[in-house]
Design brief:
Structural class: alpha/beta
Distance between the termini: 20 Å
CATH class: Alpha Beta
Number of helices: 8
Strand content: 5-15%
Helix content: 25-40%
CATH superfamily: Response regulator
Strand order of the largest sheet: 4-3-5-6
Order of helices and strands: HEEEHEHHEHEHHH
Number of domains: 1
Radius of gyration: 16 Å
């Protein structure tokens, strides 16, 4: 399964903290592209799109989104590796029974999933970072400022991607993400972003998990259609 722990996951790198308000995207820009600090050890290989899904504990929302997105991309013949991690993951937790039950209804099995803490290398090497809420996006950009132009909440990318228009035939993923990123302000990282967040169902009723899964499924479908429709080439 795409969301199961990977024993070759990159070594964790000590990170410092940077205020989102102090980051300047121009400082990260190099010849029209954003520089990347990436330790390639353990990477999926050339031509494979690396997508990281991030939530709080990596036991509810991100495993759901990872399994759904991996299936959507596989159905489109895309060479993508979709993994997940958490801000506060301890590396040992499995998904709650409610998550397993809800995803079983989607034909997906995540019972083998174990939570994984996010690392700097995860963020540095991902071609796309998808978070479940603004707090996770803020966490990602604080740890790795260079991830800002390629990090979005899932529902934000569905919204902004629709506004920017589908990825054009032959357009690199980075080009489409740059169009979706245009006009964003780092001030948007502050506070909560209810329209772009998927509420955390942990500890709630089964209906809360079902509602979260439905929101994730809808947004995943929109993002996959916009970013990996018939016009985009294999490999992302």
């Amino acid at each position: 399964m795409a969301d199961e722990p990977n024993p070759s996951r990159r070594e964790r790198t000590p990170v410092g903290r940077t205020s989102p308000a102090s980051m300047n995207s121009d400082d990260c820009q190099l010849s029209g592209h954003y520089a990347r600090r990436c330790d390639s050890r353990g990477a999926a290989g050339p031509g494979v799109t690396e997508i990281l899904v991030l939530c709080t504990a990596n036991v509810c929302r991100s495993p759901m989104a990872t399994a759904m997105l991996a299936r959507e991309l596989a159905a489109r013949g895309q060479h993508a590796r979709v993994t997940s991690a958490g801000m506060a993951a301890d590396g040992i937790a499995s998904v709650p029974g409610e998550v397993a039950a809800v995803l079983a209804g989607y034909g997906l099995d995540v019972t083998g999933h174990r939570s994984t803490p996010v690392t700097l290398d995860d963020l540095a090497c991902a071609d796309l970072v998808l978070t479940m809420a603004r707090e996770h996006l803020r966490h990602a950009v604080v740890l790795e400022p260079l991830a800002w132009p390629r990090a979005f909440t899932l529902r934000e990318l569905a919204r902004r991607g629709a506004q920017a228009g589908p990825r054009a035939p032959g357009e690199p993923l980075a080009g489409w993400l740059a169009r979706a990123h245009a006009g964003r302000s780092r001030m948007e990282l502050l506070g909560d972003g209810e329209p772009d967040d998927v509420p955390d169902p942990f500890g709630g009723r089964l209906s809360d998990y079902q509602r979260a899964a439905a929101q994730i499924s809808s947004a995943v479908g929109e993002v996959a259609d916009l970013g990996w429709g018939r016009g985009s080439g294999p490999g992302g």
